[in-house]
Write a structure and sequence with these properties.
It is a single chain. This protein has eight helices and nine strands. With about 220 residues, the chain is of the alpha/beta class. It has a single domain, classed as 3-Layer(aba) Sandwich (Rossmann fold). α5 crosses α6 and α6 packs parallel to α7. The model has no long low-confidence stretch (mean pLDDT about 90).
């Protein structure tokens, strides 16, 4: 077994809503090995999205620590966190989060601006990724001209543009029909196998979780 790419210790996150406290995560301890495919499974509201946001440096825990590549995320400044996300993490959101004024290729290449990748290199890589996810003929299409499955493919290509070692996918099939959802999971599996990318998927669907090497309830 390879060394862990992620280690969490005593992870906790509580939200304050008005006068109420909502404890979403409590004392979460786990590790994910480099190149592993893990599914986080649980009902809606169980804390799956919160955990992914913490692992990706999009949110901060109230207690505990997160080590990614041996680096404690809590010790990074906002700028360092942004650079960490740009270089190390790809995030696939459930609702795609594509910019409507940009076409597919422009959406895919957007993260390369943070990485200061030369425009010609970014465009070449973006076209290759869109071809890999089956959208070679859709590079000029804007999100409203694409189906839900196609938009999710664009989002996956965007998450991969900076060649991250860690790919986090939050309910990547949640807004898709069963056939398209199955195609998305197969796509993620193939990318995981070919690139040995560490893949963590949050899902409430047992059929989706069954594709993973390990399931965490």
């Amino acid at each position: 077994m390879s060394e862990p790419i992620i280690i969490t210790r005593g992870l906790g996150r509580t939200y304050h809503l008005g006068g109420r406290q909502l404890e979403v995560l409590r004392q979460v301890d786990f590790a994910v090995q480099r190149g592993e495919f893990v599914a986080l499974r649980g009902a809606s509201g169980a804390g799956k999205s919160t955990l992914l946001h913490l692992l990706g440096g999009l949110d901060q825990p109230d207690t505990g620590e997160i080590l990614v590549h041996g680096e404690n995320l809590a010790r990074l400044s906002p700028g360092e966190l942004a650079r960490f996300r740009s270089a190390k993490v790809g995030f696939v959101f459930q609702t795609y989060h594509l910019l409507p004024e940009l076409n597919a290729l422009e959406n895919v290449c957007l993260p390369t601006r943070m990485a200061r990748t030369p425009a010609a290199v970014a465009e070449k890589r973006g076209r290759e990724l869109l071809a890999r996810v089956g959208l070679a003929g859709r590079v000029e299409h804007r999100p409203y001209e694409l189906s839900g499955g196609e938009q999710q493919r664009v989002a996956i290509a965007r998450a991969l543009i900076n060649e991250p070692e860690l790919l986090l996918a939050d309910e990547p099939t949640g807004n898709l029909d069963s056939r398209t959802g199955g195609e998305i999971i197969e796509l993620l599996k193939n990318l995981h196998i070919k690139k040995q990318t560490t893949l963590i998927i949050a899902t409430h669907d047992a059929k989706v979780a069954a594709h993973a090497q390990r399931v965490i309830e």
